[in-house]
From TrEMBL:
Protein name: ABC transporter substrate-binding protein
SUPFAM superfamilies: Periplasmic binding protein-like I
Keywords: Amino-acid transport, Signal, Transport
Pfam families: Peripla_BP_6
Span of domain Leucine-binding protein: 38-385
Amino acid sequence: MITKWSKGILLGVCMIALAALAACGGESSGATAEDGDTVKIGALYDITGGTGDVGTPYSEGEEAYYEYLNSKGGINGVKVEVIGDDYAYDMAKGQRLYQELRDRHKVAAILGWGTADTEALRQQVAHDKFPYFSASYSENLKNLEESPYNFLTAATYSDQGRAVVKWIKDNHEGGEPTLALLYNDTAFGRSPVEDIKEYAAEMGVKVVDEQVIPVTATEAQSQMLNMKKKNPDYAIIQQTWGAAATILREAKTLDIDTQFIGLNWATGEGVVEIAGDAAEGMLGVVTHAFPYEDLEGMKEIKEYLDSKGLSTDDVSQKFVQGWVTAKIMAEGIGNAEELTGEGIRKGLEQIDQMDLGGLAAPVTFTSDNHSGTNQVRLAQVKDGKFEVISDYFSHED
């Protein structure tokens, strides 16, 4: 695991009235970008909270990319300083950290994390004019009237779910396919549920069961017994690695014959490590590449890891996901005429089919669309390892 940059302990910051924020936002630096300048990017991490299983490698990927980029001279000579800390998936702590990044550190853009905190911060982010890349892919963030500074760097959870439903409809044999939805009772867990149900009804895929399982669950026997009674052909999992592994282990114990399909945070090496052979056959939505794939974009990652005496065996898909997110932000900064929140937003809106070397689907942003892509791949666990089984596709294909 990559050693994290040392982080100071954040001082508590009182809630500040919105009217007092005008002088504190992303426009604090009005300078045109020049060689030798530094741009500050804030970051909210979940290292110790309920989604820390995937949050930790993701944050390491973000930090690693900027370390690598700075070693190559930065962004057109502009160095990147990342200032972040662990908010432990606690919305109140996330609010305080956001204010610290804005008021004390005067950052120009932010790399965020969770759905609940990202959605709660939207008004402040819009007021402060901070381009905001969250690790949440909530459909709600597509609304530019409410989220003019939020950008989605991967397919939304709803678009992931729609793609899965389309795949089910196109590939199922033998009558009307039936589906269960397994999710946690958080904004993240609930985010795609209604959209999946609506699209499934349009496609003739019948949702026969829903089970709510905590994101930190270590057992889920009662929920899985309830699902077993409905005997769905497929079950979509909207969780992170830990709870997804719990679901798979319980299903194996109860001899449940259902095809489980994880959305992106339920997919990756960690779920296989935790679930063991119970993960065999699981399908997963792949928004970002696995480090063991032979792709052009992996060359930079390998170069960075080699400089640390590491290899791709030491990182996971979520590391790649963080790396790619940071890389897209850097592209927007490179396009910016000024190192301000508004300048970086305009730079991001110039990104057109950004080629990520296969690490993720190409991303496009415009002034009226901050949803970078709706494309995903599918992978399946075979002999203890996820193998990609499809090209990029969407429910619109």
